[in-house]
Write a structure and sequence with these properties.
Layout: H1 2-19, H2 25-37, H3 41-57, H4 62-79, H5 82-94, E1 109-123, E2 126-138
Antiparallel strand pairs: 1-2
Helix pairs in contact: 1-4, 1-5, 2-3, 2-5
Length: 139
């Protein structure tokens, strides 16, 4: 159980700090404020705004925030089991479990040619560098 809480706290803290610099921040901030707040939502919301401003001005401050929010989330999750459900809902809504990578297909076909000099072809997973090519070259 402790491992699950630690993992969820890590995911939550990383998402929280990461979302501070996205367009989704205005929508997700009230959800995190409610999660942490419990009668202190306004105070938490102001704190989140201050941290968001710091990160916007100095992106390197982002890395220092994650462990702090991770600790706070872990304590919250240990003391309030219902918070885990709320946090999972936020993560499901605002983070992608498997980010889709754009696919790029490149097809080159050189037939019946002789090249003297340098040929360099670089592509995802394929690199060809040659001085002389006699014959066909297919990718």
């Amino acid at each position: 159980m402790e491992t699950e809480i630690a993992d969820l706290a890590t995911r939550g803290a990383t998402a929280l700090v990461g979302l501070m610099v996205t367009e989704a921040w205005a929508r997700v901030k009230p959800r995190f404020a409610a999660l942490f707040g419990r009668d202190r939502e306004e105070e938490i919301s102001q704190e989140l705004d201050e941290i968001q401003s710091e990160i916007a001005e100095a992106p390197e401050a982002r890395d220092a925030q994650v462990p702090q929010w991770q600790r706070r989330l872990r304590l919250l999750l240990q003391n309030n089991p219902e918070a885990a459900t709320q946090l999972r809902q936020i993560l499901d809504e605002f983070t992608s479990k498997s980010p889709e990578q754009p696919s790029t297909v490149i097809h080159n076909e050189l037939k019946d040619m002789t090249v003297h000099g340098s040929v360099i072809q670089v592509g995802k997973g394929k690199v060809v560098q040659a001085d002389t090519i006699n014959g066909n070259l297919n990718f």
